[in-house]
């Protein structure tokens, strides 16, 4: 609302990218540990990432330069996308849970990239889809890490001061078997390698969130609806967190009621600088006139 030019956040499952998408902002989830975590309250140690919410990719680049202590600042001039490859995940695009406004705005953005000379490949990203399935069938690794980190609090009298919904989610991981955790860590490593090979220099395009911001009042009244909506809202950002993908959420447009939609550009771990450079140009091509 104009109070500050930049806000810093943490993203464990989508908590930078999602609010950026729902509010028409830019949100950057960096590769985990790209930035110092000094002073950051932890949730899940291998998934937590620090990053900015900004009005533009230019501002995100400036913050990245500052936090990485670069002596030479990054260029803030958009570069040509001619020859740059993008993979548009067809399976996500065709998912009926993606609302028409989110899909239409994404496709308009993709056509703008294609017109600029970018190479667009439309097919399922197998590593991304396998990660979606893994999370759905085996559970969320972040829940186990958060429980392990905060078990002492959960076992104390102070647990009663936690938000009941947060406490319930943390407690749900108490009974996760060790064998499942070992398998999840192994699967993550395998899928990270698969993703890098599969993208082969391309950047992944998906919606950030499949829907626009939902009305808050019904969620406050209905615990089951809250859980369903929470999972639906984080569904497309959780794979990037598990695979440690840097991701930039960009405003892609609005729905008929004026609510913002978001486009998510993601890359394999460690490719933050390349991702931000591409996002700078993508933003200039899809920005509303």
Overview of the molecule:
With 289 residues, the chain is α+β, with helices and mostly antiparallel strands. It is 46% helix and 15% strand. It contains 12 helices and 8 strands. The longest helix is centred in the middle third of the chain and has 22 residues, at 178-199. The protein is globular and about 60 Å long. The protein starts with 5 loop residues before the first strand and ends with a helix. The mean pLDDT is 96.
CATH fold category name: Amidase signature (AS) enzymes
**Separate helix tally:** 12
Structural class, by secondary structure, is: alpha+beta
Please state how the strands of the largest beta sheet are arranged side by side: 1-3-2-7-8-6-4-5
**Uncertain segments:** none
CATH homologous superfamily designation = Amidase signature (AS) domain
Q: Would you list the SSEs in sequence order as H and E?
A: EHEEHEHHEHHHHEHHHEEH
The largest sheet is: 8 strands, mixed
| Beta strand % | 15-25%
Q: What percent of residues adopt helix (DSSP H or I)? A: 40-55%
- pLDDT averaged residue by residue: 96
Reported CATH architecture: Alpha-Beta Complex
CATH C-level class is Alpha Beta
**Number of extended strands:** 8
- How many independent structural domains? 1
Report the end-to-end length measured between terminal Cα atoms: 21 Å
């Amino acid at each position: 609302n104009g109070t500050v030019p930049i806000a810093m956040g943490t993203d464990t499952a989508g908590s930078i990218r999602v609010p950026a998408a729902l509010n028409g902002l830019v949100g950057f989830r960096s590769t985990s540990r790209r930035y110092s975590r000094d002073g950051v309250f932890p949730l899940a140690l291998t998934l937590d990432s620090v990053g900015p919410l900004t009005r533009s990719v230019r501002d995100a680049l400036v913050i990245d330069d500052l936090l990485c202590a670069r002596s030479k600042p990054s260029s803030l001039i958009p570069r040509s996308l001619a020859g740059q490859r993008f993979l548009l995940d067809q399976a996500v695009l065709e998912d009926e849970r993606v609302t028409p406004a989110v899909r239409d705005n994404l496709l308009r953005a993709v056509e703008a990239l294609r017109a600029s000379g970018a190479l667009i490949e439309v097919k399922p990203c197998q590593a991304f889809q396998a990660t979606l399935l893994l999370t759905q069938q085996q559970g969320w690794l972040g829940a186990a890490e958060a429980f392990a980190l905060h078990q002492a609090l959960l076992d104390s009298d102070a647990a009663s001061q936690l938000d009941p919904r947060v406490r319930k989610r943390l407690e749900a991981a108490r009974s996760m078997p060790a064998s499942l955790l070992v398998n999840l860590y192994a699967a993550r490593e395998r899928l990270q390698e698969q993703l890098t090979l599969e993208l082969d220099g391309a950047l992944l395009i998906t919606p950030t969130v499949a829907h626009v911001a939902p009305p808050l009042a019904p969620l406050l009244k209905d615990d089951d609806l809250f859980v369903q909506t929470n999972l639906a809202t984080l569904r497309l950002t959780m794979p990037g967190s598990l695979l440690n993908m840097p991701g930039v959420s960009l405003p892609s447009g609005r729905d008929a009621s004026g609510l913002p939609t978001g486009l998510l550009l993601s890359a394999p771990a460690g490719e933050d600088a390349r991702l931000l450079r591409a996002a700078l140009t993508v933003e200039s091509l899809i920005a509303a006139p």
